[in-house]
Structure formats: structure tokens, C-alpha cells
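User: Hey, quick favor. My workstation is busy. Could you predict this chain's structure for me?
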Amino acid sequence: MSYIQAVNVVKEFGTGDSRVTAVRGIDLSIGQAEFISIMGESGAGKSTFLSMLGGLLQPTSGRILIGDVDIYGLKSDKRADFRREFMGFIFQSFQLVPYLNVLENVQLPLAVTHHTEKQKRELAVSALERVGLQDKALRLPNQLSGGEQERVAIARAVVNEPPILFADEPTGNLDSRNSNEVMNLLKRLNSEGQTIIMVTHSRANSSFAHRTVEVSDGQLSATSEAASQFTVSRQAAGAGA
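Assistant: No problem, here it is.
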């Protein structure tokens, strides 16, 4: 049984003659601790699909299940709580707050948690250690390279230790050396047990994944699957039911 499952997911935008179908009935199963890449041309629907998997965009029809939880069956506030506890997000544009230092940026997802200020700082420092940036904790984002900014974004995504990471073109603004460093970091996080779902246009990046699915015109058009099998653990997602 799958850890994450998309069941006949459809997403339409607009109405009447202006209606556009971005995702056309996708079915996909993802195992726990799997690293999956989603590829396709611009406008193919891959980022829309990722947003639905991550609980950020309500499907027009279909279901997204994580463990036993139908995430769009949750009320919006409960779905936000579920995202905060079980999901981390990494974006191409980094989305760091320019006037906050690195440590403060990493602490942002902890703002609404019940941790003490000391615990928040300790968690943020630990996350920075995981990405090798503990010595840059007091710098501002504009004092970092692009690769370092993306690693800060990754630290922010993992600071709450979510079991699932969603990455949308995580190396899109980076050169090849920094891209490779970020991809090796994601691979290491995956080896530590995090499920990673990544949208990418890069074949080199997709080679880090266990499996690559191709999206074309809103539908799955091909799958390249690794030989290893992935098992499901309900322990992480079950708490959100």
C-alpha cells in the first residue's frame, strides 16, 4: 500500500469557454522514503500537480491520500496544521526574508509551534548543521551565494523534521556546481528517511531520484522506475487523522 496516493486527480482553471484543464485524471502511488522526480515541458501540469500533492491547491476532482488521511477532506485550518507538521517545501526562488538573518529565516516555520524560544533556536541550529551552514547563521541572505541560499531554504523546510519534502525546481537558479551540491544534499536527506517529491526539468537532477514520472498535457505519459521497493509506514501520517 502507498504512503502517498493520488486518485484520478483533475485540476481545472476558469469556467465556460475559458476553462483550462491543467491536470487530467492522474493516478500515482508513492512509497515512504521514496525519492521521486516529476518531469515535463513548461505548462505540462507538473507544478500544479505538485501543489495538489502538497495540500496547497484544491483539486477540481479526485483525492490525495497521505497514509489514511484524505488531505482535502480536512477543513482548511486542519489541512494547514497537517502541512505544517508533515510537509516541508523548497522553491526555486528561495523565498528567504531579506531582513532576517539565516537563523531567523530557518526558525520561521516554528513561529506557531509550542516550542520555547530556546528550543526553536536549537532546532534551527541543528537544521543548519544538517546543510553545513551553521557558521553562516548570523548572515543576511544577500551575504550568501545562490547555492547557500538554497541550502538555507532546505534547512527551513526540514527544521520541523517533516516526513515529506516537496521541491519545485530546487536548482533552477543555480549553476551546475551548486546544483550538484543541492541534489547531493537532497539525496542524503532521503537516505535518512525523508520522502522527497521533486519537480525538475533537469535529467541530471532526476537521476538522483529512485523513480521519474513524466507529465505531458496534464497526464502521466511515462515512468522510469528503480528496482528497489518502498514500504509504507502509517506512523507518521496517522497522527494527522
